[in-house]
Model the fold of this input.
Amino acid sequence: MKRIFILLLLSFGLAQGQTWTIQIASFYDFRLAQRSLDRLVSAGFDSYSEFFMEEGSQFVRVRVGCFESRETAQNFLDTMNSMGQINAYITQNTNSSKNCINRSVGFITPEKWGTYQLNNDNIVFWVNISGLTAFISNSDSGWQISQTGTDLLIDTIQERPIFHYFVQNNETGPIYVVIPNRKPYKLTTGKLLWQSGILAVILENDTIVSYRLSLRSD
Done:
């Protein structure tokens, strides 16, 4: 059982305070900034621009996304770089109205694993390593682990309707964040296993991760 606990990487809640974004470039010419922004938006990224002053001159930053932790921003930047998009860097976010994303690693999939329960309230996995079985769930409370699984099960009499903020058109394609009155933007690639409101659990390569969307007013 010890090896199962080693595989499980629990998150300890959302990062508080500072959020992060990806700086693409800054321009003196607004037209160049707009062209860069248009290319990123067309590629499906959550892109935006903002003005700033430096040594008495006005410039335009072009940025992508808002992330609750630097690690989440780095993961997204690595994905962008693997697609050959841009050479960018992570910086502190200055746009408090942006909707932010938090990514939390649940566990690395062993040879034997599967879904134990699936409903609006949570998703429960079973994992088996060297003949030992444990149960891992994700819900509003984050990642949890159990040796029996019974304390993770939730009896749902009636599935209540929930707005889905995450969309995947096919099992291997990009996963998008969909917010009403906004253009959908790319989040990651993998397989969307479960979602409930602002939460989603995704299989990325051989790792089970969760994403949480922090909704803010524009």
